[in-house]
Amino acid sequence: MGVALIVVLLGGGILALGAFSTPVFGLIVLASITYLRLSDILVHYHHFPSIAKPLIALLLGLVLMRWILHNDEPRGWPLPLMLITAYAIVILLSLFFASNFNAAIGAVSDFIKDGIITVLVVMLFQKSEDFRKVVWSLLFVGIFLGTLSVYQYLSGTFDNLYWGFAQAPVLNIVGKTDQARIAGPIGDPNFYAQIMATLVPLGINRFFAEKRMLWRIFALWAAVVSTLTVIFTFSRGGFLALTVGLLALAFYYRPSLPQIAVVGAMGMALLPFLPAEYTARLSTLTNFLPGRGDVRNEVSLRGRTSEWIVAGLMFLDHPLLGVGIRNYPEHYLDYSSRLGLDPRRENREPHSFYLEIAAESGLAGILVFTAIFWSLYRSIKTARETFEKIGAQEEAALTVAFGAAMLAYLSAATFIHGAFPRYFWLLLGIGLALPQVARTLQQRADEA
């Protein structure tokens, strides 16, 4: 513990110096550590003290110090603060309806930390030249995690956790077939597929936009290993999210024939890596289509359908504020036993971020998240229009790629609940900061 504390203190000192002189340095560190889940990995696998809370407190203090000492006032933070506060009020009110009060209090505590990250990201992300740096920080995390995951799968070294960054639990694939599924630092393949699918549109953008060959190679590396990682998780929701992100990117870019050929060649090159069980698992998605199958014939789909219906029933019974934050599992068996679709006699999660909001925070939560999603959409749209207005086409295209990445993330959220919400609040902070980033470049253009 003594050595660990010294390492943490030394790292904190270096971070403080760097972040005080250049705020984007602190933002890059925060984004990288959050996407890696580094703090949790250090705590659970290496017996380090938590670095997340001290890091957030340190960066927030440095922002305030720059504001006071150098009159460097951060911009854009009132909107995210207002949105975070609104949802905090909703979940605090939902505590009155929570049957498991301790679980609800824990969720409130986690949300406060995540909400601070959103506001802090906006405060640190102020300049247009920082946009590319932030995206590359996420892509290098993708290279690290994706390379580990691909190597782990191809080598079959599922017992090696690779310092905690490459977990691979044995789970159901299709029917009665169980197999190791890549889960990265998260430990759940579906959530891992969600965050890796989010990186693919960003990697493709950098591959076509970067001028230097070395950076284009890194971008291609990130896109390829992130795509393969999504495949090796065997996540159906991850596959759909990846498809949505790529289609959104193609809709904006209207790719030329050479670009289509390049992406097509990349896809063909990945075909030999597709496991036979993966295509069999994807084929079960047709069971949701009318006349094509029956969800009762596949165990996981039957359970998923039950979880979704139960979430809807909870919302109808508690429409205003829901059953209480993180209290869906407490009521699941009561509803599912009456529904009779899921034979499992255990508490389950709603397996949909949106249905989770409805069931646990009711109409009030739905309204707040509608405002959050609308603000995110408006921020991305405003930033793109501002960049295009001043002729900053590369920044505009990168903004669209980020929008496609968010679409991928939010598409995957249709099929999984908010068990690891910190990724969402991090990405939300980046998205809400984009208008002010674009305005800084516009001001420089106007002055010039």
Give descriptors for this structure.
two-stranded antiparallel sheet; mainly alpha; 72% helix
Mean residue pLDDT:
88
Low-pLDDT regions: none
Number of helices: 17
For the record, give the distance between the C-alpha atoms at the N and C termini, rounded to a whole number.
54 Å
Assign the structural class, choosing from mainly alpha, mainly beta, alpha/beta, alpha+beta, or little secondary structure: mainly alpha
The coarse overall form would be: globular
Read across the widest sheet, the strand sequence of neighbours is 1-2
Q: Beta-strand level of the residues, as a percent range?
A: under 5%
Radius of gyration: 22 Å
Order of helices and strands: HHHHHHHEEHHHHHHHHHH
Descriptive overview:
It is a single chain. By secondary structure, the protein is an all-alpha fold. It has a domain at 1-73. The protein has helices at 2-21, 23-36, 38-46, 52-70, 78-94, 101-124, 130-155, 189-209, 213-232, 236-253, 257-270, 276-283, 299-317, 328-339, 353-389, 393-412, 422-447; strands at 170-174, 177-180. It has a two-stranded antiparallel ribbon with strand order 1-2. α1 runs parallel beside α4 and α8 (189-209) packs antiparallel against α9 (213-232). The termini are far apart. The mean pLDDT is 88.
Task: Break the fold down into its secondary structure elements and pairings.
Blueprint: H1 2-21, H2 23-36, H3 38-46, H4 52-70, H5 78-94, H6 101-124, H7 130-155, E1 170-174, E2 177-180, H8 189-209, H9 213-232, H10 236-253, H11 257-270, H12 276-283, H13 299-317, H14 328-339, H15 353-389, H16 393-412, H17 422-447
Helix pairs in contact: 1-2, 1-4, 2-4, 2-7, 4-6, 5-6, 5-15, 6-17, 7-8, 7-9, 8-9, 8-10, 8-16, 10-16, 13-14, 13-15, 15-16, 15-17, 16-17
